[in-house]
Amino acid sequence: MKQGLHPLVMILLVVAATLFGRVLPTWTLSLATVAASNALIALGIVVLARTGNVSFGQGLFFAAGGYGVALIANAWGITDAVAQMLIGAVCGGLLGLVIGPLIARYSGIFFGMLTLALSMVLYGALVKSTALGGSDGFNVGRPSLFGMIFADPREADFMLYAVSVVTTGLAGIGATILFRSELGLTSLAVRENNLRVEYLGISANRVITLNFVIAAIFAGASGALALMAQRHIDPQFAYWTTSGEFVFVAVLSGYQSVAAVFVASLALELVRSFSNLYLPNTWQLVLGVFLLGVILFLPRGIGSLWIRDRRKTIKPAAATPVAAKKGVAL
Amino acid sequence: MKSVLSVRGLNKRFGAVVAADALSLDIAANQRVSLIGANGAGKTTFVNMITGYLKPDSGSIALDGVDIGRRSPRNVARLGVSRSFQIPQLFIELTAAENLAVAVSGMRTRSLSLHSPAEAQGRRDKALELLERFGLADQADRPISELAGGVRKLVDIAMALVRRPKLLLLDEPTSGVSAEEKFATMDRVIRAVAPDAATLVFVEHDMEIVSRYADRVVAFYQGRILADGDPHNVLRDPEVRRYVTGSAR
């Protein structure tokens, strides 16, 4: 790893971000929790986008994680936040394992539309399912952590913030290692020329499937975190506008940097909160203008702000540790 | 002499166009064969069928006795057939060394690693060794998008060489290279591929290159083999001169 932060430094950053929650005002804690949770699923979309495919239906795995956790929590009384997050990740990942190999044969708009269609199929099924509360969904209990029950709302919010930041932070470290890995580099190759990848003896479909499953795991864990934050689940988790929001974050961040996903998710939540507060009837317009601005002035996403700067410092003919250019810097 | 590639009765049609008409051909180990023919004669279709990109309508293709006629490009590559392309097929946002690193990753028999760095020392060394052989070591860390067409061509061939193929197919290795540089480029290619790919088939339009570097020439015309033999005889064949090289008089 010639460029980017060392994983130990990244772990320290995650610890610092977690402890920072202690001094954050209560209202920003829940905002940051949602931002971290959204960043996790958007990170999965970025992982997948590195193969050249965008999923417009991550709500499918988001809902699978959320519903899976809610059903298991209610049936078996599992309230531990970490266990719930892991159950969500497993539910998302298992569904990804079933769908991934089938969908990896498609690319471009067909891939995107298929993911969207599958999420809407689940949405339709959930709305019609009275056992799962239909369109109203159902509630779950307050989460605990390692046997500790948090009666104080501020402490409960901080616990959830900590679980979300640590989970998303660890996923970010994992994604950084992945981006620098053999699979990470081959994913970029698949995005550029999947036929050539096949001619080199590598299965492009397998590369896409692996990335798809990773994205599904992240989405499932994110669904669990969202469930814990809301303590309620409904079919909206699988609705296309929910998926669209995550794509929104991924577009804002670009695919070059893991840190950009967190920055983009937080920026989106801040813009949404403040525009909702000051412009309650036109906040969607503000969001649209914000996205338009990023696309016009930072077409490679927010991450290009610091990745581009790093490129400028590299002499063209020098032995360039190109990892930085391929989106492996944190 | 033992055949590396054995093709029997290969047929391929695209609607009314006959791209391969009962082609039969054996290529022995250590041969350097040039495929010549006018545009549309069927050379690239032949290469595409051997590498699994196109499936023949009928006929058989065997590599060292193993039928490869219905296999995918990935399987054919794994069995020992590699190719380069007329228009280099590279990952242009990646550097030359990273392109080679992807090719080296293709050598793995197990799944790609999710944590081992893409340019781990072994892979990086192999990539640099190949680039060095083509005289491109100083280009290793430059993105393909910044490299000239001739250099891209060589990187494309280097990638095909990573697997140490039993049969290496080069599609017009000197196209796009200036007349002054074509022999130097071809000398470099022949020298670089020799340690890893003894059996070489190259599609070529330049008859000077063909007569200088091929041991054997196969001339294609309308999906058939018009002539097959040593360069001296094939290039003087009246039909080849009439339909392929265009120097009848």
Describe this structure in words.
The complex is a heterodimer of chains A (330) and B (249). With 330 residues, chain A is an all-alpha fold. The N and C termini of chain A lie close together (12 Å). Residues 309-330 of chain A have low confidence and may be disordered. Chain A has 13 helices and two strands. Chain A has one domain: ABC transporter involved in vitamin B12 uptake, BtuC (Orthogonal Bundle). In chain A, 70% of the residues lie in helices and 1% in strands. In chain B, strands 6-7-8-3-9-10 form a six-stranded mixed β-sheet, with helices on both faces. A four-stranded antiparallel β-sheet of chain B has the order 2-1-4-5, with helices on one face. Chain B has 249 residues and is an alpha/beta fold. The radius of gyration of chain B is 18 Å and the shape is globular. The model of chain B has no long low-confidence stretch (mean pLDDT 88). Chain B is 32% helix and 25% strand. Chain B folds into two domains: 3-80 and 165-243, 3-Layer(aba) Sandwich (Rossmann fold); 90-150, no CATH class. At the A-B interface, helix 6, helix 7, helix 8 and helix 9 of A face helix 2 and helix 3 of B.
